[in-house]
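seq as requested:
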Amino acid sequence: MRTVSGTAATFRGIHVLIIGYVTALAGLVGYALITRDRHFAAAGNSFPGNATSIAALTGYFTATLSGMVVLGLLIYIVVTARPDSRGLIDVDTFRVHVITERVAALWALTAVAMIPLQAANTNGIPVLRLLDSGAFFDALGATETARGWVIVAAFAGLIALALRRTVRWLGHTMVLIPALIAVVALPVTGNAGQGPNHDYSTSAMIVFVPAVAVVIGMKMGAALTPLAPLARRRALLISWITGGIAILYGLVLLAFLLGPTTPTQSDFGMLALLAAGALATVWVGDVIALRTRKTPTDRAAVIGALIMLVVVAAISAMEIQVAPALLARRLSAWDVFLGYELPGSPTVLRLLAFWRFDLFIGAGAIVLAGLYIAGATHLRRRGDAWPMGRTTAWLLGCMILVFVTSSGVGAYGAAMFSVHMSQHMVLNMLVPVLLVLGAPATLMLRTLPKAEPGQLPRPRDWLLLLLHSWPTRWLSHPAIAFTLFVGSLYVVYFTPLLDTLLRYHWGHQFMAVHFILTGYLFFWGIIGTDPGPRRLPFLGRLGLLFAVMPFHAFFGIALMTSAIALGARFYSKLQIPWLPDLIADQHLGGAIAWGSSELPVIIVIVALITLWARQDRRDAARSDRHAGADYATDELDAYNAMLRELARTRR
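struct tokens:
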């Protein structure tokens, strides 16, 4: 009976959402016809014609909405599914899975279509003329956003294929990673990744877009499935949290993209007000529902999903035109490639005092520090002990992470190879070591409550599944972790990939996250105390640590002796006045890479010896207990034998 009613609710929800999508599509077509060439003329671009302009706008909306729906529904499945003993999702979330799979296919197809449409629209050429002219690849190479669609199409196709082959909870969790990359890949190549302060706006966009996607997923998922009240409340709480984050980061984005203009002075600003108002309406509705403690209804979820369609439509119309901040002034080379001006040559004072706070990694480090403190405080209030050394290591790691990404080290690291290499070594070796010593998984397992049998799984249950899953076992295998830790160093710096990553702020963010994760995986296998896959013996761990050192030494020596400047295509365009010799700066970076690994290695060796000594003490204590138990058993056996002998002689 529940299955029949659930299917009916799913169909009703789908029909209403399709009507809402068609209505939003019609509104965008009308907007494109009304504005015609206005936005193109403001940016100094040619008008490609109504057909190409309308197709680009509606295609952008369809692909963006599809991507956000896929990411949001994947998260919805992960947080509301009741997997069985084999890890298979339940019937209700399977309905959402089927819809997600089909939307992912639509996402991939629309992204493919958007590649020529975006190239034609940006260059002011009708799409059919572009395809017929033979200059398509030239236009693609000159259009950053069109190249972004290539990445989106590839990842969306991969996601569609993956969803076709899995109905397991773990599979959906793994697909989240490419979905997140694909959803973010396009917005960071648009307005947010250009011009003054694009370091701030890019970081904000990396947070804003996934947050909006989660709100969409929570609303659409609740509208499509008849979930239990607890699952609905969980979806509502997640929607409220991510909606608040989206509003906060959306306001930050507007502050940078509007520039000196007010919202009412441009179509861009008016669309921003529309998106902000719609998003705020959904968030206020979540607040009211949480305060009244009423179980969210299907109708409320459908209304919320329809309002979110308005949000995505407005964002799409904004992204298809140039932001006012990019038209407000003539851009310098530093505006284009850095997003800010450096105050002068790097000094100790400037490295310490010149801050541009990282709204993605820096904010994430502060959140992680706050959550860790909350967990440790909860344990102590409960009467359980938690080592102060672990807390100190974690907080120190978070503090250093904020410093190297948000201070002058991060600002100058984007412009100078030597400072960049200092930042890299800290992110790849020192920060991961400190974070591993903090044992965050152990803290979460001791703090988070466990779901009772028959209840909806909780974050502690998700963490246990991930810790003992095959991807974790594979990634944390010593050979794989070693290869990722060492190999990525050479792949990033000795291939053309470096020029691309240096050119864009999202590339700097990608490198930072990648180096932190690969460092964490490697050092987790050596000095980690969190539960996880089987580790090498202590001598094997020490040997693995020493095996890394020659590779780092060779990397540093290669940089110090090379006559070819790495990233020269990017660094030469900056024309930094105090940096006339790129080779000399690279040699300095090589010396830093060669000599700066000593402190992290010393910390790791001390931690490893300490763990080794503790393990020996535990083994010795266990042996003593066993020996004592064996001795007591022998004494008891001898005493019983004596009693038996006395009884025999008396007879």
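The chain has two domains: 2-334, 349-448+458-617.
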